Amino acid sequence: MGGREVLAQIKADDSLKTIPTIILTTSAAPEDVQECYKLQADAYLHKPVGFEKYDELVRSISSFWLKSATCRS
Fold first, then answer.
1. How many alpha carbons fall within 13 Å on the CB side of residue 73?
2. What CATH number should be reported for the domain whose range is 3-68?
3. In the chain, where does DSSP find H-type helix?
4. Which helix (H) or strand (E) holds 44?
């Protein structure tokens, strides 16, 4: 099962659909971005090359979603 299938299942489940979903992928193809947003992803991020940039991205995700954002309940 691929990531889009998992996303579709999460968003179809009433007990899970409000969990914020972030797509972290190597694809920057516009059709992939559009498809994930059609499936109700909350964010689509392109994976950077190299550990330092990847670590920086993960830290910024953590800072935003766990410290800054007010999520729906």
1. 1
2. 3.40.50.2300
3. 3-12, 30-38, 51-63
4. strand 43-46
Confidence (pLDDT) at 73: 60
CA distance 34 to 2: 16
Sign of CA dihedral 2, 30, 50, 61: negative
pLDDT digits (tens, 9 = 90+) for 5-30: 999 999 999 999 998 899 999 999 99
Q: Which residues contact 48 (CB under 8 A, 6 or more apart)?
A: 54, 56, 57
HSE toward the beta carbon, residue 29, CA cutoff 13 A: 6
pTM of this prediction? 0.79
List the domain boundaries for the chain. 3-68
